[in-house]
Amino acid sequence: MRTPLIRSGAALAAATALALPAGPALAGPPPAARDALAAPTPSPGAATVTKAGTSFLTATAITAGQPVQVGASTGDHLYWSFPGRAGQIHEIAATVGFPKGRTGASTWTVEVFDGLRRRQACTAGAQTPTATAAATSVTLGCTLRQVRSWAEPWSADPLPGTYYVRLSVVDLPEPDLGLPVDVDLLVSDVGDGDAPADDGELKAPLVPNTKAGTVLTGEPAAAPAEEEDESLLTGWLPEGSSRWIWTTVGGVLAAVAGVVGFALTRRPRRP
Questions:
Q1: Residue ranges in the chain modelled with pLDDT below 70
Q2: CB atoms within 10 A of CB 126
Q3: Residue 125 and residue 139: Cα distance in Å, rounded?
Q4: What was the pLDDT predicted at 264?
Q5: Sheet bearing 90-97, strands edge to edge
Q6: SS3 76
Q7: Cβ atoms of residues 75 and 167 within 8 Å
């Protein structure tokens, strides 16, 4: 009688690996997916900007692909400006690094304005994220619409000109106000300049006609005039709503008031 062989866990794992056929190695995401998830990169040789403005008038001028690294305080409003040409689609990516010892969560926002100080909408990106008290950084993003070469005067479409980026905090605990933060920002151009306008094609009327009328084939017949029933006695009298009645009544009241006033104010005759 043969004694059963008891194998250890390592031996069993090695035996199982030898028994199973070799399968394909796990591969990462396809190159297209990796490119789509890749963050924007600065332009080669672009100088790093180390300052920011505090208003629209003092905004620091930057260009697409030029990195920004600024040290600021929590609560500051940071402004940058960049030029936009027709056909371009700009993407703004920002990262705010926090120090240790924060007391609560904070909400940050990145906004983009055109040359007329009109706020432009973002089509993608985390424009107003919230960072927890334990977070060491927060990432913000905003992808603008394509800059158009022309637009109607009443529209808010992006037009060629100067654009302004504003980074600020909108909600935080009061003890965290003034803490130092590190800001990294990059404006990149992701448009090719040949894409059509992003307003699409109108498929239906803006105001559909829901109350259609009837088509007239001829001139409508005039309504017969109502015959006036007037007698010889009442035909010459004015109408009830005529101004002559109010004029007559007013004259009579004025005469009565004059007589009464004269009787009250005249002196009595002496005998």
A1: 1-40, 45, 153, 192-212, 220, 225-242, 269-271
A2: 17
A3: 10
A4: 83
A5: 67-73, 180-189, 90-97, 137-144, 122-124
A6: coil
A7: no
Token duo for residue 176? 């965290």
Count of CA atoms in the C-beta half-sphere (13 A) of 71: 3
| Single-letter amino acid, residue 264 | L
Helices (H), the chain: 9-19, 31-37, 243-265
Amino acid, res. 75: G
Contact 185, 80 (CB under 8 A): yes
SS percent in the chain: helix, strand, coil, step 5: 15, 25, 60
Residue type, 24: P
Q: What is the reported pLDDT for 204? A: 56
Give the separation between CA 115 and CA 162, rounded to whole angstroms. 5
pTM more than 0.70 = no
Give the tokens for residue 244: 């002559």
Residues 14-39 pLDDT 10s: 444 433 343 333 333 344 333 333 45
CB 145 within 8 A of CB 120: yes
Amino acid in position 215: V
